[in-house]
Every structure is written in structure tokens, then in C-alpha cells.
Amino acid sequence: MALAIKPALQRSFGNDGWGFAVAVANIQVPKLTELDALTNFNLSCSLFGEQGDPTANQEKVTLPRILCETQQYEVNGTVTFAMPDLIVSFSPQAAAASDGKKAWETMVDQLNGFLWRRQNVAARDELDVGQFVDIIPVQLGVKVPGKTSTGADGVYSFTQGASITGAPAWNVEIVAGP
What we know:
Blueprint: E1 16-21, H1 32-35, E2 41-42, E3 55-62, E4 74-82, E5 86-89, H2 102-106, E6 112-119, E7 132-147, E8 156-164, E9 169-173
């Protein structure tokens, strides 16, 4: 018998980076130039720590039994992908193009594009060739300004839905590109 595989545990605290790219030609082979373009936005220091992860729900279907069979079997059916709403920090009174307004201005309502998520690298670090990311095709929803709470710990934020519009590419390597 083969020895059990035991990967080292990797801490996720502070090591998730998120961003939005307007265009990615091939989500299986994302280029650094596509993810790092000036029209894109790195959300790593704008999303709150409670940001949820995308999910997939795999439907299981029971096949019909024919008369001579005494057992029924399942097969995989539809997969439904979902993305929790993005909760993004921003400053309602900040000047245009400032750090406090960049996310608000860049994440245009109903914009189609790609969320990228990089795991196991410090969130503040820049993207680099050879790192692995998830590329998630999305359509952004309508932004709604608000705050994280009404208590003393509340800060201003906006919430924006993100609908997954195609099959994501999980853990794909960033390559160099023109």
C-alpha cells in the first residue's frame, strides 16, 4: 500500500488576494499583462476579511429503474456556481480617483469581466508569473453604498453582487504575456 499523502497546512489569514480584470483571453492560461492591466482593479486591500468564497453545488440525479433491476444509481447533474456579494470598503467623500473611491469608480454596475483570486501568497504582494490563481467569469451587479455596522466598529462600504457567468478555471498558473 502506498504511503498516505500529508500536505503541510498553509495558513490563509492575510494570504488571499482578489482582483477584477476586464478581459482575459483564455482563463485556462491567464497572462500577467491581462490581470495587471491599468483598467483592472486589485481588491486585496478593499474587500473585508469576511469575504466569502465561490461555491459549487453539484446536483445528483437518480436514474430511473427499469423493471428487471433491483437497484438504482445516481449520476452527476447540473453544477450551479455562486459567488457571495462583494463587500468593499470606500470613502463616500473621497476625491475622484483617490484610493477611497477607486473601487467605486472602477466596478461599474453590470460590468462583465473576471474576478481573480490568488491564495497562499500575502494579499499585499503583487501578482507574478508562476503564481496560481482562480479565474471566475462574472457580471457585476448594482453597487449599494452602506456601512458594515451601525455600531462604533462600523465603517463605510458598498455591496455589489457578482454573478458567475461561466465555468471558473481553478488554480491555473499565471504566464507572461505581451
